[in-house]
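Hi,

I'm pasting everything inline rather than attaching a file, because the server keeps stripping attachments. The sequence lines come first, and each chain or strand is labelled.
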Amino acid sequence: MNQIIKEDSRYPSLLREISDAPKILYYKGNWNPELFEHCLAVVGTRRMTSYGRRVTEQLVGQIAAAGVTIVSGFMYGIDATAHKAALNAGGKTIAVMPCGIDVIHPEYQKDLYNEILANGGVILSEYEGTFLPTLWSYPKRNRIVAGLCQAAMVVEAGENSGSLITANFAKKFGRKVFAVPGQITSTMSQGTMQLLQEGAGVVTSAKDILDYFRQNSGFFSSLSLASKAGSPTTKKILNSGSNPTLEQKILEQLRAEPKEADELARLFETSAAQIGSVLSFLELSGAVVKEGSKYYVS
Amino acid sequence: MGLESIGIDVEVNVANRGLPGFDIVGLPAQSVDESKERVRTAISNSHVEFPQKKITVNLAPADVPKEGSFYDLPIAVGILGSVLQFEIPKKSLFFGELSLDGSLRHTRGTLLLALFAKEAGFEKLYVPAESANEAAIVQGVAVYPIENLEHMIAVLLGKVRLALAVYKETALSEVEGAPLGEFDMAEILGQEMAKRAMEIAAAGGHNILFTGSPGAGKTMLARALPGVLPLLSEEESLEVSKVYSVAGYIPPGGSLIRVRPFRSPHHTISQIGLCGGGTKPQPGEITLAHRGVLFLDEFNEFPRSVLEALRQPVEDGRITISRSRGRVTYPSRFMLVASANPCPCGFLNHPKKACKCTPREIHQYHKRVSGPILDRIDLHIDTPDVDVQELAQDASLKRFLESSIVIQQRVTEARKIQEERFVSLREVSRRETIHTNTEMKNAHIKKYCALSREAEGILLRAAQGFQLSARSYYKVIKIARTIADLEGADRIAPGHIAEALQYRPKAYGAT
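And the predicted assembly:
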């Protein structure tokens, strides 16, 4: 059986520091000590909004590509999105389960589970066998997530979100807590706003996180980050011609805030037919994507 | 039999020998057998003594099961002919259900009888007065309205000269449940994309699915649809009227149905209720929606088996119901209008309310409607939540609201273009009649939807980028054709393709 005891030299040193570090860690996948050198916990709500998803994909994609290991709890919502984004960026990721090591929870994310293992990631748990998750095992798991990492980033969290528990553990263990700002009106921003008020680091781009790792844990990455001003296509469309076309005007609007086609039609007093046509061209060129009923600048 | 009629000869023998009795032979169903009591009482109540003799009625051909109450009148006339000793007029058809007091009731299927009479070369048609207008739709057959059995006797004895029934349109021609103008499009604020999609759907007869949160206005949009649909053409009107005549839905004194049917069955409907069937095959909702709209509110709540049964009729425009007692084909060329919530709680992607569903639940919810069914829907529309009060205060928006009448005119023009396009097909084959773009098969698309190189290039790029299925690919062309028709454009331009792409099916991001 794959297990590592606390006294083992391969046991993650950061985790060993915490007061109630698990005595035994059960794991799946290849145990590679390098994996635990630079770790960022990415946690958030299960009920993520499309904003939360997009932000997670963008930030985690860049952070994981730079070489930081993404640690999360394998729950659906922000957790699963973070694991996925890390894998898509070719990065490493660790999933800490609230259940026995032989249980996949939630079961329908089996594909993601296998993908993590197939790409050099590790699945961890302090419980053996087929122990099923219980109410108390989730917060227990959260202390491991926080304990493994130099820093924790909370993307979206409701008022009583479990991810706040992770953030509190991180604080207690003396790790840096980051929070991603959201709209102040969104219920999924209440938790993150609370963290920000309490002094959590503000994340405005992946650079904020990577800078922290460079300064505090001897992390070095040569990766240069793309600016967040939009994809090359977006810029190309925006910069061509002096008299703004409808295409350009729509892009400008969407850059400020994602909108529905109906809103654009009302805004520009244009027929839905024409708005639809232009949006299709923009989608085809890769400048915007549609999610739910809203259009986003990619 | 379904919408086909077969001639039945009613032979009546009144014998002096044998014990008095009254029998009907020739596979009569319950309703035909009960005719005996109705006829006996009606004759007695018409001041004629019912003969105390052995009466045998044979319905020929004897091996076809008979159904319905309309054999009352011919049986009564046969018996009366023997009692009162008159000659039954040649080349005449008698049809109608008797009441116990001898009066004739409105009888279902009169229109089909009249059509059959014309085809089979009958000259005179005696029908209940209340059904006479329905029969008079058919030109070339003399229709005589009969009030009651005494009236019938007087006519046959030559005591009364009968006036021919002259067809007139009555206000009763509206189909029950067709909410013409229940909502005007101008009353609907916001939802610009959805309204545009409805215009396209109405113009090309396309199927459409609205997805949105509760209260976003999906049902209101669907209910406004009849107001923008063009009126039925003469030919379509007859098709619809036939169906309604058979189903018994044409009211007494009713005339041709001019308004497109709008059927909205509840999601507890059974497969037979929707598609038709039963021991004696009856038309279902899809047939009653022929040339009109079938609106399925809460699409995902319908049992999967019921929705799956829609696949073939949606594709073929007709349904064949095979039962032990016979096989019947009913027409079912309808516009499918469906509405659904984005997730079980309904608030996925809602700007203000949080969705309480897990990805699993959302996934399960969408799995209730199969891919093949979704693939048969041409236009997929999101109806985002609208702050109606805010929009109502914005007076400047009022200028852009179009009323249903204006949209209906554009739709009617586009339909005309389509009729002209497909008229040549009829000369080739009578069976293959196409009225709208949505009915085009792939061969027709190649023939009638020539794409410019530029337009085709965009479509090919989209097929790759958006991962369109082969069926969706052709649907985009069909929709683009309708968009071009609405504009009166001959060729499909890149802009038409681009707009059509907005209505493609969407994937729901659930793991």
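The two ends of chain A are 45 Å apart (CA to CA).

If the labels don't parse on your end, tell me and I'll reformat.
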